[in-house]
Design brief:
The complex is a heterodimer of chains A (113) and B (113). Helix content of chain A is 0%, strand content 60%. Chain A contains no helices and eleven strands. In chain A, strands 2, 4, 5, 9, 10 and 11 form a six-stranded mixed beta sheet that branches. A five-stranded antiparallel beta sheet of chain A has the order 1-3-8-7-6, with no helix packed on it. In chain A, a hairpin with a 4-residue loop joins strand 7 and strand 8. Helices cover 0% and strands 50% of the residues of chain B. Chain B has no helices and eleven strands. In chain B, the strands form two sheets. In chain B, strands 2, 4, 5, 6, 9, 10 and 11 form a seven-stranded mixed beta sheet that branches. In chain B, strands 1-3-8-7 form a four-stranded antiparallel beta sheet, with no helix packed on it. The radius of gyration of chain B is 13 Å and the shape is globular. In chain B, 40% of the residues are buried. Classes of the chains: A mainly beta (113), B mainly beta (113). Chains A and B meet through strand 5, strand 9 and strand 10 of A and strand 4, strand 5, strand 9 and strand 10 of B.
C-alpha cells in the first residue's frame, strides 16, 4: 500500500524562526512534490524534486530529496506570517502507464507574529 | 492558455441523492484525474480518465463514476450520497497519462446533509 507520512501535522512557530517539515514515502518513486494550500482553496504547486540529492529553493522555502532514505524535507527559514498555510508532500506513482499522486495528511503551519 | 476550471464552486445535497461535478482540462491536456479531500486530510486519488475511458482507480466504491468527453472535459458522478462524501473535490489535468505533472483546478466543495 502506498503511504506518505508527514510530520509534524501541526506546527506553530514564531516569526523569524526556522523549522523543517519531514515527509517519508513508501515506494521507489524518484519524483516528489510539495504543495501549499490556503484555507478553502486549491493546491498551489511549490516544488517538484526529481532525483536523489535534489534541492530547490524559493524565497524562504527549501525542499530536498533523499531517495535512498525515501525522505523529503521542506525547510522554512526566518518564517513570516504569509507562510501560514497547510503544506502537503505527494509522491507520483506510475501504475500501468498512468500517474497518480499519493498525498500525506499535510502539515498545518501557523506563523505567529 | 486556459487553466483547469471546475463547476459548481459549492454544492449542498441531501443523503441518498446523486451529484455531478464538472471539470474542464487545461488547454492541450487530454488526461483528467479526480481527487477527494476530506476536511483536515490530504487529497485521495479517485480515478483518472484518458481517451474517454477510466485509466486507473483508487480505493473508492462503484457509486463513484466518471465520464470524459471528446473535448477532454470530465464529469464525476456520485450516487447514493453519504455524509462522509462531504469534501473538496479536486480535478487535475495532465498532458497525457505518462506525464506526471498535474495541474489542479479550484475544486468543488460538496456538503452532504
Amino acid at each position: 500500500e502506498l503511504k506518505v507520512e508527514q510530520n509534524p501535522l501541526f506546527l506553530s512557530m514564531q516569526e523569524g524562526k526556522n523549522y523543517t517539515i519531514y515527509c517519508n514515502y513508501s515506494t521507489t518513486s524518484d519524483r516528489l512534490y510539495w504543495y501549499r494550500q490556503d484555507p478553502g482553496k486549491s493546491l498551489e504547486s511549490l516544488f517538484v524534486l526529481l532525483s536523489n540529492g535534489a534541492v530547490k529553493q524559493e524565497g524562504r522555502l527549501m525542499a530536498s530529496l533523499d531517495t535512498k532514505a525515501r525522505l523529503s524535507t521542506l525547510h522554512i527559514t526566518a518564517a513570516v506570517h504569509d507562510l501560514s498555510a497547510t503544506y502537503f508532500c505527494a509522491e507520483a506513482y506510475s501504475g500501468a502507464g498512468s500517474y497518480q499522486l499519493t498525498f500525506g495528511k499535510g502539515t498545518k503551519l501557523s506563523v505567529i507574529p | 492558455e486556459t487553466g483547469v476550471t471546475q463547476s459548481p464552486t459549492h454544492l449542498i445535497k441531501t443523503r441518498g441523492q446523486q451529484v455531478t461535478l464538472r471539470c474542464s482540462s487545461q488547454s492541450g491536456h487530454n488526461t483528467v484525474s479526480w481527487y477527494q479531500q476530506a476536511l483536515g486530510q490530504g487529497p485521495q486519488f479517485i480515478f483518472q480518465y484518458y481517451r474517454e475511458e477510466e485509466n486507473g482507480r483508487g480505493n473508492f466504491p462503484p457509486r463513484f463514476s466518471g465520464l470524459q468527453f471528446p473535448n477532454y472535459s470530465s464529469e464525476l458522478n456520485v450516487n447514493a450520497l453519504e455524509l462522509d462524501d462531504s469534501a473538496l473535490y479536486l480535478c487535475a489535468s495532465s498532458l497525457d497519462p505518462g506525464f506526471p505533472e498535474q495541474y489542479f483546478g479550484p475544486g468543488t466543495r460538496l456538503t452532504v446533509t
